[in-house]
Amino acid sequence: MTIETHDDPATTAARAVERLRLAEARLARRRQSDCGPSENARSAMRLILERADAGTSITPTEIAQSLAISTASVTGMLDRLHAGGLIGFVANPSDRRSKYVVPFDRDADVDTIDPVTARIRAFALELPEGAADQVAAFLDRVREVVDAECA
């Protein structure tokens, strides 16, 4: 049985965001146990590829800081990504104690690292002209609220 309500647009949008947040939490739990690389590993790969595409390097410490996780967690995660053939390490020429993390396959499709993003991008292509900017602005504001909570 479905209860039909007629909410104002703000309530409708807020409820949709809450459903999205719950779905993201469920996905994160599934990925921790049986669905390929963890969310942190996927985020690290996106960060590594973004940096490589921008022509800059990234260290494990920078990855840890960006993801707000411990360097010990990053070390284990990078070891698994390296064993899986997704990344490599090169010496930092200005600091021999440090290393840079680099992607192995520069032809790798970022969408294969996170197929959810690929599907979302496909949905976004169907938005009416101008709507993508409005949706992005709204979601950026939601993200700011989420990021500020308990910070």
What are the key terms here?
elongated, mainly alpha, single chain, 2 domains, 2 strands, Arc Repressor Mutant, subunit A, two-stranded antiparallel ribbon, 151 residues
What does this entry look like structurally?
This protein has about 150 residues and is mainly alpha-helical. It folds into two domains: about 10-115, Arc Repressor Mutant, subunit A (Orthogonal Bundle), CATH 1.10.10.10; about 115-150, no CATH class. It has helices at about 10-35, 40-55, 60-65, 70-85, 110-115, 115-125, 130-150, and strands at about 85-90, 100-105. A hairpin with a 7-residue loop joins β1 and β2. The longest helix has 25 residues, at about 10-35. The model has no long low-confidence stretch (mean pLDDT about 85).
CATH class of the largest domain: Mainly Alpha
CATH architect. name of the largest domain: Orthogonal Bundle
* CA-based gyration radius: 19 Å
Question: How many H/I helical runs?
Answer: 7
Helical residue percent?
55-70%
**Structural classification:** mainly alpha
Shape, principal axes of CA atoms: elongated
Alpha carbon gap, first and last residue: 40 Å
Instruction: Give the count of structural domains.
Output: 2
Average of the residue pLDDT scores: 85
Placed side by side, the strands forming the largest sheet appear as 1-2
Low-confidence stretches: none
Write the CATH fold name of the largest domain.
Answer: Arc Repressor Mutant, subunit A
Order of helices and strands: HHHHEEHHH
- Looking at the chains present, what oligomeric state does this protein adopt? single chain
Task: Describe the largest sheet.
Answer: 2 strands, antiparallel
Question: Which strand-content bin applies to the residues?
Answer: 5-15%
Find the count of extended strands (DSSP E, 2+ residues): 2
- CATH superfamily of the largest domain, called what? Winged helix-like DNA-binding domain superfamily/Winged helix DNA-binding domain
